[in-house]
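ESCALATION

Customer reports they have been waiting on this structure for their group meeting. Please prioritize. Original submission:
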Amino acid sequence: MTRTSVTLCADVSRAAGEDPIGTAPHWAEVTVLELDVPVWAQLRSVDTWTPAQSAVFAALREKVEASGAGFGLLMSAPQTPGAPLRVRHYVRGPGGYRRQDYATDLPQTEWARGLHDTLIEPARLRDWQPVAAPERGADLHVCTHGTVDAACGRYGVPVHAALRSAGERAWRTGHFGGHRFAATAVELPSGLLWAHLTPTLAVQVARREVSPAEVAGHLRGFAGLPARAQVLDRALLVQHGWDWLNAEREAHLDGDTVTLTVTAAGQTQTYRAAVTDAEPLVLPGSSHKPDRAPVRQYRLGPVHTGSVTAPDTQVL
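Update from on-call: job pushed to the front of the queue and completed.
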């Protein structure tokens, strides 16, 4: 039998020199469902959803349309396979996201209940058992979903293994977008998304053993901000160092002009810059589809600092 060679989209992205900044999704909150790997396929199989499961996603679409705020859904393999459904819920707050864990006796097939009660009707969480979250450290959700894209299996699995071996809280996680950035990871509670991680680099990032300047080219962005604001936020992270992540950052957009209002240690500072489109790259979105499409790249203009009154635009 002849084995067909697959060109991995992540390899093409790296070879093209793609800058991943601005590709992090914009999330107001994130729900992480602890599900065994076989259940991931069930959740992704729209055609097999029950009416109740379909109703949950319809309600989520209405919520997004009404508020303009997106939400994250991650599927992570539990530490104990076959364990009852458990949910980790992150809500946007100062310095990233606040985490709260919930346990239940429900089977994992009741995953729609976890989504509904965290993202649509949080008052029902009183029926769940709150579990104390770890006080320190990060959760690295590494996409290892090789059945969705071979790049995530090829590069994500060894990154997850390296993080676990190093004693970091790493989670084997289902597809959350960005195949071509494998190995890609969502870091919470910081809300950072990473691209093209290697096993060694992933551990260094988790432990902050490298400076932001050294890993800027691997940062997809901060999920608490919209795409153009992620570009300015990265530049300020490089300038100020990892302590920047402790600050409360809010963005105002006026066309291509981004204004970040930043509060830390009781002090508020404003940063403003133009973030315009650079020449796009033409890349495949998947390792299994040869079609290529333009991929947006950004250019950051001069950054102006001061007590600038933010434009009367939507806070994002």
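Sent to customer with the following note: The chain has a mean pLDDT of 91.
Escalation resolved.
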